[in-house]
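Dear colleagues,

I hope this message finds you well. In preparation for our joint manuscript, I am sending the Integrase catalytic domain-containing protein (Trichonephila clavipes) sequence together with its predicted structure, so that both groups work from identical material. I would be grateful if you could confirm receipt.
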Amino acid sequence: MENISRTASSTYKYQDPTLHSHSTGYRLKPQSLPRLELCSALLLANLLQATLPTLTVSISEIFAWSDSKITLAWLKSDPRRWQPFVANRVAQIQELTPNVHFNFVSGLENPADCGTREIPPTKLEKCNLWFNGPDWLRSSTFPIGEFEDNPKLQRTHVCRSQKSIQADYAERG
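The corresponding structure tokens are as follows:
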């Protein structure tokens, strides 16, 4: 479960495009993947709330991305329609991030996914996606909304393709 965020500053435009990128590991009590993604979004919301007040630049907009469409659907809805686990977290995220624009990012373009792909450190240190985020994140305009129809996001030039990851898992049995 991963999320990335980007802030736009009117003073220092896009100097550090990936303000935060994180990935979280395995939890002791098994949860569904969408619930883990929601917990990751809550972690991001808490991180943004703790970090933004410490910045010395003016932030005009905040964009956050998740590779979970289910999490994004939960965040764009009224929390009262969900069971308590989801409802409580959605309400917290909405309260902490009222002006954050949440969007979808393909798992192949999500830098936080690199931390969950068992990439050796020697390859990770050369991984542009891990250190800089996707190319579109550093531009002055970037895609917003549904990403799956965007041909730029169908590339497989990132650290490892999904097929190579699946092949590694298949070899391990």
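For the figure legend, we might mention the following. The helical segments are 33-51, 69-75, 84-96, 121-124, 128-132, 162-172. The longest strand covers residues 2-9.

With kind regards,
E.M.
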